[in-house]
Protein: ABC transporter
Organism: Paenibacillus oryzae
Amino acid sequence: MSVMTVKNLTMTYKVPVRPAGLKASLQSLFKRQYRYVKAVEHISFTIGEGEVVGFLGPNGAGKTTTLKMLSGILHSSDGEAKVLGHIPWLREISYLKQIAFIRGSRPMSVPGELTVKDALLFQKKLYDVTDFDYRRNAAELVDMLDLESLLPRQVRALSLGEKMRSGLACSLLYRPKVLFLDEPTLGLDVTAVNAIRKFLKLYSSHTRATILLTSHYMADVEALCGRIILINKGELHYDGRLSALYDAMTPYKHLHISFTDTNGFLWEDIGDVIHSEDHSITLRIPKERITAVTNRILSSFSVHDLLVVEPPLEDVMEQIFSEGSIHK
Ligand SMILES: Nc1ncnc2c1ncn2[C@@H]1O[C@H](COP(=O)(O)OP(=O)(O)OP(=O)(O)O)[C@@H](O)[C@H]1O
């Protein structure tokens, strides 16, 4: 069942131009000039119930603007969107109670004096969560996000990772059906990043929530999203499985080999050397030659370890956005 349908969604910001100099500034008070910034241009996609979709693109691609439209913060300039049967920017209460827009740059929006427990109770009131649902949902979230020891702590004294975990609990207390996650792991350390990823995976499988997620960390995307939508300069470039994107973009794989001695083996004969250290090397090999190359290496010298992997998603993204298109 489709939860989100977006058709030709477009957003153009109208930005006042402030000329330099006092005279020109004064004149602009009476005769304003504007420039127009095309942030999102005619993008269309459909997302089904329970899907976790990575919404990716370089800086300024239009990701946050799209999420703001879909969560009802911004009115589109043109095009249509329906989420859970609602037009987001009409901001109907019944819609807002079913979605959450969570931003890594602003993990909690309650006054810093409140404790985490107060923040949860505040959210309960705001979203009319029944006592029964509060007890059940809060207990589950506190457990999944390991929040017990944070409940009596003031929000202002939390670390960034603790704020993100607490912010997620507040945003999910009313069990939203659709989550818009904008850079949920922004600025977090490795432990906090892993905790958030693990939680999101668990939460999405447990509740069947539909998630649209932006992140500059490709590991987030690889861990959570089977499908990705790519945009660049406001336009949609790709919508499909992550694995199909690899197939379309990378006719090669990476081969990591560790060894003690290679008996003078010439790597350049079999592939491009990506990285090399004393006793290990990474090669880029065309996919159709992987078996032959592996056999040749194994029969030429003693190998400690040999690993065949897809190239890093970061490299694939860089390739797409520098070339401006996707090979089909
Ligand atoms: N309030 C605004 N007024 C004018 N222009 C804006 C406004 N917000 C965003 N823009 C512009 O719209 C374009 C898309 O911005 P947006 O923040 O949606 O991109 P993004 O993909 O989320 O980028 P990032 O990855 O850097 O967060 C950019 O050119 C940006 O400068």
User: Anything to note?
Assistant: The chain has a mean pLDDT of 91. The domain at 2-244 is CATH 3.40.50.300 (Rossmann fold).
